[in-house]
Amino acid sequence: MSGDQLFDTIGATYAATRPGDPRIAARIWAALGDARTVVNVGAGTGSYEPPDREVTAVEPSAVMRVQRPAGAAPCVPGVAGRLPFADQSFDAAMAVLTDQHWPDVIAGYREMRRVARRVVTFHFDISRLEGDFWLIRDYMPEHARLTSGRPALAERARAIGARLEPLPIPWDCCDGNFPSYWRRPEAYLDERVRRAVSVWHLVGRDVEERVVCDLRADLESGRWAERNSGLLDLDEIDIGGRLLIA
Fold it and tell me: Average pLDDT, stretch 177-205?
């Protein structure tokens, strides 16, 4: 399933279940520096688009495009690997939690570099996430096959001469991305939460049902709390969230 087909499937409630977190947004906007014109690649419903700049959004999924709120930035159909803009059309290009769905992620980053003088993206370092996030480590080993053969985040950064900056995830993160409920494990038992996260669709229904069953049992028995007691006093955690800035 291509990225746009996937989001045609999961995108129906995306605007309600995946709002932007203001703390993450503030870091992204700060990294944009003094850029006045910004292209948002894989823009979705536009939850992280800066309101005080001239933004052009690019989004392949029609289901996602129609959920963009009134007054949102203009949005055109398009994919990261073939952006429909001339060289250096924008001060900055941004992308948030989307490059895992690009068929050729390096080509997408090079296109962003081509059309903009600055590139800012927010994604997870999967090697860090798979090692540190309890949901993958203890319940979902199948996650590894989703990223097998994909360029590491450091490789993506090298492709355009970018640096990486840690972006911790707060315990009460508003954006319901995959690891955002790291201190609220009961949330993963909620079907509505899972339906708006691509990972659950990609691992398949059998894996999803097993993970939910095992997690529910561990929550009821207290085993999850025993394993993860150190998380309960943390306000934020570094589980691989990274800003890539070029």
Answer: 94
